[in-house]
């Protein structure tokens, strides 16, 4: 419990990692962590608390069985889970969660923050979240976020001093009235039709250092599909985007862009 009304849950995402071959023995719920999570969320719901979930690997990057079970938990406790925060991918993105009945009503968003590590052709970056404050009845929801980067090209000029600078603020950059799940869902749909806005996202996605190869039709379809797919390998989540390519092809394309 961080303070009255808000509980923080940290998940060990090694128990969902696609690189953890020990999970071939039990990939459904290793160590009973998901069952434990359900118990924590149920108790929080009963107590009228909100919950923030933090973890390293985003759910859509997890093993399929773990990812689908986690997705179901988020759908069940949509009124209790106020926010989800992950990392791992080194880039600036998000993953959507929808109701399981129709896969159309957005219920949650997993924010995926960029990394301070450069990895491959990336500037260091970090994210600051603005969250509804600690007062009775607070939603504890994310109200906005801003990302800061260290421009390595500028920092490596002889005699230059490293300087962190704000890259963007979410609501300002994307013209969002708020940053609730429905807003991110509408933003994905705007990306489909507004190429300039999408290329702006592609620039920010790479912390101001996008690859020289532009993200065009096939790449764009794969990225938008990834943003909408909060659970691993679910073609149903991409269907509203009307992808021109079969889902396995979309998945294969996106794996080429992944850093992790």
UniProtKB/TrEMBL annotation:
One GO term describing the cellular component: membrane
What does the entry give for GO biological process?
Answer: ceramide biosynthetic process; sphingomyelin catabolic process
- Domain of life of the native organism: Eukaryota
Q: Which GO terms describe its molecular function?
A: acid sphingomyelin phosphodiesterase activity
Q: What Gene3D superfamilies would the database entry show?
A: 3.60.21.10
* Keywords, ordered alphabetically: Glycoprotein, Hydrolase
Pfam families in the record, alphabetically? ASMase_C
InterPro entries associated with the record = ASM_C (IPR045473), Metallo-depent_PP-like (IPR029052)
Q: Where is the Sphingomyelin phosphodiesterase C-terminal domain?
A: 106-227
Protein name according to UniProt: ASM phosphodiesterase
